[in-house]
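Supplementary material to the annual report.
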Amino acid sequence: MRNETLDDAAFSRLSVAAQLPGGMSRRRFMQVAGGSAAVAVGGGILASGLDPLQAFAAPPIGPKDGVLVIVALEGGNDGLNTLIPYEDPRYYQLRDQVSIPAAQVLPVGSGLGFHPSLPKLKARFDLGQVAAVRGVGYQTPDLSHFTSMGIVMNGWAGGSQPGGPTGWIGRYLDGLPNAASESLLAAVTGTSVPLHMSGSVARASGIPLSIESAFGVSRTDPSEARMFDAIAAFANTPTNLGTWGDTVADVEHDALDLAQRIQPAYQGTFPATSLSRQLVLAARLINTNLGLRVISTSAGGFDTHSNQAATHASLLSDLDNSIEGFFATLSPKLRSQVTIMTFSEFGRRPVDNATGGTDHGTAGVQFLIGDRVKGGLHGTQPSLTTLDRYGNLIPTVDFRKVYATVFDKWLAADSQQLLSFNFGNLDLFQIGGPGEGPPQTNLHSDGRPEVAQGTASQSLTTGHVSETLSPVQVSSKRRVRIRRTATTGP
Amino acid sequence: MPTSAADVSHLLRRAGFGGTPAEIAALTPLDLPAIVDRLFDFSANPPRTPPSSLTDPASGDWLRHTDLRKWWLDRMRTAPAPLQEKIALFWHGHFATEATKVEHAVDTWDQNELFRTEGLGSFESLVHKVSLQVSMLVYLDNDRNYRNSPNENFARELLELFTLGVNQYTQDDVAATARAWTGHNVDFNAVPRRAYWFYPERHDTGNKTFLGVTRNWDGPEIITRVLTVEPQRSIAARFIAQKLWTYFAYSNPDSSLLDALTAQFVASSLNIGSLVRAIFLRPEFYSTTARRGLVRTPVEWVVGVLRATGLSAEETNPQWWMGSMGQQLFSPPNVAGWKNNAYWCNTTSLWARADFARNITWRARNAGFLHEIAQRSGTQHVMTPGAAIDFAYAKFGRDPAVEPVSGPVRQVLITWLQTQRATEFAPTYTWNLWAPINLTTMMMLCPDIVLA
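Predicted assembly:
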């Protein structure tokens, strides 16, 4: 009889965070490996401000790293009214209430055009910076929001996963160095971490939308600052409470550390809407270069069963402005390393309903936006005459083929391992993108300090590059969480 | 033979949500089996009245679930015999169902009550009953499991997550189980509300081969077969024993310990109470490994700090933070329920705990919580820094005189209090209560208090 049950396996994976070779605590490991100067003893680590080398565990974005910003359009975005087949008379036959008049459509070729609320995206498309993937969906569609979102966020082709489903980005994070310790490799704007950002070990950090709601961010009150420092100091030495006592102390230290590190991203004003705020925050976090590889944002309200015309126009306008706000905020030095990707759980039914809206459908359009995407129309526009038995579009591109392309061509990962199947790639990125080779701009040319100095940083950087090539390999290095430390005393 | 206060304190934390000094003192004269017997006596628990919104037609199910969350947290906080709630919490994670999919809070309530009333009874009976409740039928889609299009969702989880564990059956067994459960659906038009209903015309009466036996299996017979016939009965017993040990003591118990627990569980015909009693009587339960083996789940931690401060969930709304902490009642992350330990050790979760701690600190302060540590005689504090910190530990159920606490962390707190007091008194003395306010927050985040 097998002793290892589901939970044994799940627990042992989840316990990786706190276990080091030989049962050493992380602090003891640091004392051995990094020298005593590496460990702040006595005074609070935050008391004298942050040592820039005393970084959170995620290495900064390297020159070959692609950064992905995800925009979830929750509720089921109407693909047919986002990228509109305005030259197909069938479109107007099916939609006598919610169709967009041909004269208002913003043409992008092949008889298709953007919704009139997307003028900025259209302009960007004309510059070759928008890849529109048509007909994205999956076989035997499930029209439940719950189920369909689960499928789309999961993206695993290999059947049920022991320990429950993991997210497609989560699995990618699982394979990065230091993944287990939640090293700010990925973030969600907001406090709840959705499935696509959760792996079996790694989980994205939730970054609050306002500075007030993060414990440890504001240090204006001296008594409060003293309290933060004391809590952070729980981690100065082993607690003598065992692995989990040490881990709790470490994570509290890290949360306070992180609060200070994200603090600059809240400087300055924010735009009004939730999505625009999230994307500006995302851009500022990338500019801060904490090492974030993936940031997920979300906008709700796309479940337009009724009165779609006004609602959808407003939502797409918000999306249009938010994307523009993101690129306006993003440092020009980083532009060639960042791609935005939209997704939704499903598209909507071609025929409109009796209440001026559309019901749950299947395939939709997915956008990838950035300097290094291969702009234009990709995939095949689904037929409006040959529909499935529920009157829905028949998808032409498996959503996981888009993920596979992002993994292989943008995140330098192995899609076959992360999706459990070889879906092949679409031609969505320019040659020489981060997934393939050195980009045209050098991240280190903007005056930021080189990080690859000193042994700890060196090994981290090297390990980072080599290990991303085999993302699901669990190396011993990954079990070790190394706080970047100065090689000379503070 | 009396039992040590340290053991009693540990037991009350794990079997419930922590004991008061008076509760601990009342039990220490007894021997351990007698103390454990007391844990199983629920006669002192008051009758249960669900929140009024549950049956108020004007309320929506979102509000009802919210009220139910607060209601349950307060029940955990106040029940004199909290093992009943602790075991219900375990089964909620084991037979996970989720509020937005179940939708109707009355069905969530029915399941919650089942876990409370039968959570320490026959495991076989519990599996039968939970499977036929609307909450489970809807959550795992057996309400849509028809002869012509079998849905395997419930069938798979019945075998994998509820009884046997992964890889103890084949895909053919899953398919056979799904067919056996066809027709066990929900009558959505039932009065006064939707209810389980067996539709013979939707049920597959053909022969199915389950665990090598070909016959016309019916859904509930699958459960009986798995839980009464070897070797599956022992496999299931071990699976449940391992999970319960992990819940109450620590992860990855030794094989020999699991053998013993499994044997006892099987000998009791899978009586859950017998197994839990055996767990509390094992010497390993009182080992250092056990004492340091678990991080408090968000639910345990919230209930613990509410108990310490005397505040209620009703007034503090912990559900506003508990999703970010990683454990919102009635919203498990997926069908596999919640994991443990490392699952709560991330910055997002700790931030949420800290935000909640800071929020309720102000309410506690208004009630004078920990104000004793600021009392003074002339310019001198009545309590030394060490005494003040130990006083705070005791308030949170970790009296250093009863159980050792982390020496280094205690020293950090003492050093902090010395500095804080010096700052508050010098150079010109002004009266304020920053020390008790901030110490309230700090104690809630102190590793000794965050551990279970």
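Chain A touches chain B through 69 residues (CB under 8 Å).
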